[in-house]
Amino acid sequence: MSSECAPVTEAQLQRSCSGLYVTHALEAFCGVLMFVFFAVVSIKLHARSHLRSPAWAFIRFAKLHVYNFFGEFFSTLGTVGRQDEFKLDIRLRFCSNLDKMGNALSAWLSLLGITRWLSLGNVNGMRYIGYAMTCPLTQLELVVLLAPIVPCYRILATITFLVTFSTLFMGYIASLMWMPLWDGYLEDFFQTWDLENDLMPTSKFWVVAPAFGGISVLSFLILPYLCLLHALHGGDNNEDLPQGYKFLVFLVWSLWLCFPVWWLLSWEGMTVITDTKVNEIGFTILNISSKGLFTLQSFRLGERHDARLAARRGNKRHRNPREVKDKVSAHQLTKNWSSEGDVPPVISRKSSHLLSESKFVQVLRCFDDISEEEEEEEEEEYGEE
């Protein structure tokens, strides 16, 4: 009788209510459908006297930008096999493109996550898709930054990408399984090391085992190996290697290890924390911290490289990376870069200015905190170019 009256935890409710997925997904779809309908009507009413087909104009506008975005993404990714041929400034541009696109994908997938269209078993599938589309690129960037000094660069880049993707995929599959990782006792297992009789692993254990194996390979083999290569080839003193690279690797290493720990504690893993409200909060904090700090440190790598280029020209004022942003324009820096040779257009020097010329930036520039004198200087600079 007491067992029947035992309180039900939130974790159990999350699993037992997973059958309502269709209801929630349909409700979200109807909400999106209403948004599209009223948005189209609003556009038609707003621009009916100015545009012949305002709705189709908006659709073509969105289609063009989506096409350009994915075109630039795949064009950039298509140059990964040649990164060992290029100088650091080009490799930094490659990584900057991936960072820009990765953060944009994360933003859109996070927004789509509100619809709960992929919340099978009440597990946020959009979160895992975001991981699968951005985390392998993050690990790939760490290899690309050292591409010229990495033995068998293409092989290591491929292995790193696939191991990261497989880790995240198996983690998602394990999250969908409604069972503990083992039915036995961990204390007894540590005393006897009898896996079958004392730990009694479940199917979920064997599914998630490759994921933990993958994160171990990344954290304790590949990342230390990259740091060792960086140190053996001169580290920060090597002008073709990024300054601050080891700290970038440390950020990835320390923050990424927090994800499997939190997964084990959450209701998706061992349900140590039964309060499901903190589950998504924890993953959100880790996601923002890891990707945000990685992007910030990657940006600083570029700043330091720009400062080193300025110092090489004998410009003592710009040895501080922070001063480069204020006193040296991107155009002035790129004037003195070494010849790039046969560089794909998507990561060439000219590609650095395409964003400044885009319609999106031109619209935002009207609302930016910029003085008229600075705006005139920018126009003169790009006019000369």
UniProtKB/TrEMBL annotation:
GO CC terms of this entry: membrane
Keyword annotations of the record: Membrane, Transmembrane, Transmembrane helix
Cited Pfam families: Bac_rhodopsin
UniProt superkingdom: Eukaryota
InterPro entries per UniProt: Arc/bac/fun_rhodopsins
Cellular localization per UniProt: Membrane
Topological relation to the membrane, as annotated: Multi-pass membrane protein
Name this protein carries in UniProt: Uncharacterized protein
TM helices/strands, residue ranges: 20-43, 101-119, 125-147, 159-179, 205-232, 244-265
UniProt similarity note: Belongs to the archaeal/bacterial/fungal opsin family.
